[in-house]
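SEQUENCE-TO-STRUCTURE ENTRY
===========================
What this section holds: a protein sequence and its matching fold, both as plain text.
Tokens: labelled as protein backbone structure tokens, with as many entries as the chain has residues.
Question of interest: how does this chain fold, as expressed in backbone structure tokens?
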Amino acid sequence: MYKPSAKEQEFFAQLDAQRKAKLEAQHQKHIAETERKRLKELHHMKCPKCGMDLFEVDYKGVKIDECAECEGIWLDAKELDSILGMEKSAAGRLLDFFKKGS
């Protein structure tokens, strides 16, 4: 009857450990993706201030989000830049407003 050597046992033990580590990493990635999707579904199109539903409003071709409850206006990435690019004078006033607050 064949008995594996210590080196063979160590080799297969390392392979098994690597396989288990890879499976665990895949499992953790799946858990993280599932949680990210769950949170997105939970918070998608919800007001960050009051939690109520947001609806899209077209402002000169730029889609912005407005809260149905508190009437807050929320901008996604690059929407502020798009709006500021259209309205130079308004951009100056808006930037001045934020500078005063800091």
User: Anything to note?
Assistant: The chain has two domains: 1-44, 54-101. The longest strand covers residues 54-59. DSSP finds three helices and three strands in the chain.
